[in-house]
Protein backbone atom coordinates (compact mmCIF):
# COMPACT_ATOMS: atom_id res chain seq x y z
CA UNK A 1 0.00 0.00 0.00
CA UNK A 2 1.08 3.57 -0.56
CA UNK A 3 0.18 6.96 0.82
CA UNK A 4 0.60 10.06 -1.32
CA UNK A 5 0.65 13.73 -0.38
CA UNK A 6 -1.89 16.14 -1.79
CA UNK A 7 -0.75 17.62 -5.06
CA UNK A 8 1.79 16.27 -7.47
CA UNK A 9 2.24 16.15 -11.19
CA UNK A 10 -0.34 16.15 -13.91
CA UNK A 11 1.50 14.04 -16.50
CA UNK A 12 -0.96 12.40 -18.84
CA UNK A 13 -3.94 14.63 -18.09
CA UNK A 14 -3.61 16.41 -21.42
CA UNK A 15 -5.67 19.46 -20.50
CA UNK A 16 -3.54 21.45 -18.06
CA UNK A 17 -0.78 22.80 -20.32
CA UNK A 18 1.18 24.72 -17.68
CA UNK A 19 0.93 21.96 -15.08
CA UNK A 20 2.04 19.37 -17.65
CA UNK A 21 5.11 21.50 -18.43
CA UNK A 22 6.17 21.31 -14.79
CA UNK A 23 6.40 17.51 -14.91
CA UNK A 24 6.00 15.11 -12.04
CA UNK A 25 4.14 11.85 -11.65
CA UNK A 26 0.36 11.89 -11.79
CA UNK A 27 -0.69 10.19 -8.55
CA UNK A 28 -4.25 10.01 -9.78
CA UNK A 29 -3.11 7.12 -11.99
CA UNK A 30 -2.89 5.01 -8.82
CA UNK A 31 -6.30 5.92 -7.42
CA UNK A 32 -9.47 4.26 -8.63
CA UNK A 33 -12.02 6.42 -10.41
CA UNK A 34 -14.83 3.99 -9.62
CA UNK A 35 -17.53 5.76 -7.58
CA UNK A 36 -17.74 2.68 -5.33
CA UNK A 37 -14.11 3.24 -4.25
CA UNK A 38 -14.40 6.76 -2.80
CA UNK A 39 -14.41 7.66 0.88
CA UNK A 40 -17.99 7.09 2.02
CA UNK A 41 -18.56 10.11 4.25
CA UNK A 42 -17.51 12.94 1.91
CA UNK A 43 -17.04 11.18 -1.44
CA UNK A 44 -13.34 11.99 -1.90
CA UNK A 45 -10.83 9.59 -3.40
CA UNK A 46 -8.55 7.76 -1.01
CA UNK A 47 -5.03 9.20 -0.90
CA UNK A 48 -3.65 6.74 1.63
CA UNK A 49 -3.82 2.99 1.82
CA UNK A 50 -3.99 2.68 -1.96
CA UNK A 51 -3.48 -0.95 -2.88
CA UNK A 52 -0.92 -1.36 -5.68
CA UNK A 53 1.02 -4.12 -7.38
CA UNK A 54 4.75 -3.57 -7.92
CA UNK A 55 6.79 -5.76 -10.24
CA UNK A 56 10.52 -6.04 -10.77
CA UNK A 57 11.61 -4.89 -14.22
CA UNK A 58 14.63 -6.00 -16.21
CA UNK A 59 17.84 -4.03 -15.77
CA UNK A 60 18.58 -1.52 -18.52
CA UNK A 61 21.82 -0.08 -19.80
CA UNK A 62 22.87 3.49 -19.01
CA UNK A 63 22.09 4.45 -22.63
CA UNK A 64 18.41 3.53 -22.30
CA UNK A 65 15.99 6.19 -21.09
CA UNK A 66 13.60 5.08 -18.37
CA UNK A 67 9.92 5.22 -19.29
CA UNK A 68 7.48 5.88 -16.45
CA UNK A 69 4.79 3.25 -16.11
CA UNK A 70 1.95 2.76 -13.70
CA UNK A 71 0.30 -0.58 -13.02
CA UNK A 72 -3.03 -0.29 -11.28
CA UNK A 73 -4.40 -3.22 -9.35
CA UNK A 74 -8.15 -3.60 -9.58
CA UNK A 75 -8.50 -5.03 -6.06
From TrEMBL:
Positions with biased composition (Gly residues): 1-12
Superkingdom as given in the UniProt entry: Bacteria
Region (Disordered): 1-31
Name of this chain's protein: Molybdopterin dinucleotide-binding region
